[in-house]
Specification:
The protein is mostly beta strands. It has a single domain, classed as Rieske [2Fe-2S] iron-sulphur domain (Rieske Iron-sulfur Protein). It contains 1 helix and 12 strands; from the N terminus they run αββββββββββββ. The protein has a 4-stranded antiparallel beta sheet with strand order 2-3-4-10, with no helix packed on it. Strands 1-12-11 form a 3-stranded antiparallel beta sheet, with no helix packed on it. The longest helix has 6 residues. The chain starts with a helix and ends with a strand. Bound molecules: FE2/S2 (inorganic) cluster (FES). FE2/S2 (inorganic) cluster binds next to loops.
Amino acid sequence: MIKEIITKYETVIPEQVKVWEKVAHVNDFPLNGGLAFYYKGLQVAVFNFTRRNEWYATQNLCPHKKQMILSRGMIGSNGEEPKVACPFHKKTFSLKNGKSLNDGVCDLATYPVKIEANEVFIGFNE
Ligand code: FES
């Protein structure tokens, strides 16, 4: 069951986007924080990285202990690398490519984000 939940999250690269799903207005987001959204059985965390003027989207599921929590994680930078730290045990992940920055923890799926007319869209491949 857990394996099924994890494997349904797959990174979508911009070239694969078939659906741009509008999720919220930019003002709905906390500064330097995230919100979670549902899309076809997926929970996706979208991050408004105000300090860097960047947006990111990852699976909301932390692969460490399988908690739906990453949208409430602390975001920051590791050098040039934007990252999110899970609030439970502080495992960290790159927001750019979802790579785990801790040994022994699976990577995250990531999704493209675009802003149009102050609305936030996430890219999905189905
Ligand atoms: S559940 Fe996320 S770090 Fe443990």
